[in-house]
Every structure is written in structure tokens, then in C-alpha cells.
Amino acid sequence: MTSAEPAVTCRDVVRSYHLEGRDVPALRGVDLDLPRGSFTALMGPSGSGKSTLLRLLACVDRADTGSVTVDGTDVTPLSRRARVRLRRERIGFLFQSPADNLLEYLTVRQHLELGARLRGRPAGDPQIEEMLDRLGMADRAGHLPKQLSGGEQQRTAIGFAALGPPAVLVADEPTGQLDHGTVDSVLAAFAALTETGVAIVAATHDPAVARRADRVIRMRDGRVVNGVS
Ligand SMILES: Nc1ncnc2c1ncn2[C@@H]1O[C@H](COP(=O)(O)OP(=O)(O)OP(=O)(O)O)[C@@H](O)[C@H]1O
């Protein structure tokens, strides 16, 4: 594998849900590349398939047909155990609600220490201090989540998810519960992290996210409508 290879590729990915004896098509043949060190905004109307696609990229769900490759590994045929391992080592995930991303009894620094440990990094890893600086959180390192603003909480969660770095950081509406004033700091954190080589993909309805992204992928009715750029 070379670093020029995308962090993630999807080829002709199809996924349907089965509901009360009916098939509900969510993805109808998605092709997508996420280059390393890039920030991609995934946009599209409600129900267009964004969350479904993110769940496949994060290896918490599987495609019916087609292939999803993460960091050179085709994840579709992997066992549950192998997917759990790939997720821990190579994939970061960020939920919309800051509270869902954090443990209330750990400080900012302890979250980053835990993230480093889960990625197999050594104790006292210099990445932890670098990450605090990159996120603008060095002066908040000893604070618990309840002592932080929503934006600071979300930046802590980004740091936890991005240590390593993983190949891809998957974020579902990462600014959806933040007020305007703090959205910028979260977007600046994403932009700063692309320097580490991680591919960031964020599903969003927020035009501010799209403006800060390197690329915008639009979905409609389970398909990517503006192609691979
Ligand atoms: N668990 C489920 N069971 C049945 N149908 C589902 C399920 N999850 C999603 N769907 C359907 O799959 C399609 C795609 O949904 P998805 O949540 O991926 O869209 P989305 O673009 O993320 O929407 P939003 O912007 O509202 O989050 C929709 O038609 C939705 O109703």
C-alpha cells in the first residue's frame, strides 16, 4: 500500500434495510474515494443515505453488495472480530452530541491518554501534548467535560478519535448541537488534523462545514450525485 492510495474507497456499494417485509433501499450503488489528509463534507437531503454510508465506512455495518476498503483492507468479508479490531486501530468515530463522545469522569488529558492506549501508543506518547496544542486545548487539559463548552467538548472528542492517527475519522453531524460561536473552533480542529494524514468525512446539513471542507460530496436517493473529485 502506498500513501497515495485513498484512505477509503467504496465501489458500487448497495445497502437496503428490511422493514415489515419490505426492502427500503438506502444506498443504490455508491462510488467514493476519501484521500488521505483531506476533509470531506457529505451533504444531501434527509434520507439520502448519509448516515447509512458513514456506518459502513466506520465498519459498524456491512454492505449488501459492493466493496468498502479501509486503509487497503476490503472490510466486507471480515469477521465481526476482525472488524472490531480494524475499528479500534484504524477508524475514529464522532457522534453528534458531545456528551455521547465523552466519559464524564475523565479530564481532557485522560481522554487523550485513553485514546492513545486504545491505538497501542506508548504511555507518555508525545502525540498527546501535540494534540492538545493542535486543538487549542492545552490550557483545558485538566478539565472535566462538564467544565467545558460544547465546542471544547467536541474538540476533546475529536482528539480522542484522531490520536494515532487512524486512517479515517467519521463524523455524523459533528456541529449539529453546537451554537454558531463554537462551530468555527471545531472546524479549525478538523482542518488542523488533516496535516496528520487522517481522512475526515463529516455528514452535515451545515453550510459552514461545507465551506471549510476540501471537498463536498452530495448524495440524493442513495447515490453520490457529484461524482468522485
Ligand atoms: N434502521 C432502519 N430501518 C429501515 N429503514 C431505515 C433505517 N435506517 C435508515 N433507513 C432508511 O434508509 C434511508 C437512508 O437513511 P439515512 O439515515 O442513511 O439518511 P440520511 O441522509 O443520513 O438522513 P438524515 O440527514 O435525516 O440523517 C431512508 O429512506 C431511511 O428511512
Automatic annotation (TrEMBL):
It comes from the Bacteria. Residues 8-228 form the ABC transporter domain. PROSITE patterns: ABC_TRANSPORTER_2. Pfam families: ABC_tran. The keyword Manganese does not apply. Keywords: ATP-binding, Nucleotide-binding, Transport. One of its GO terms (cellular component) is plasma membrane. Transmembrane segments: none annotated. One of its GO terms (molecular function) is transmembrane transporter activity. CDD domains: ABC_MJ0796_LolCDE_FtsE. This is Peptide ABC transporter ATP-binding protein. It comes from Virgisporangium aliadipatigenens.
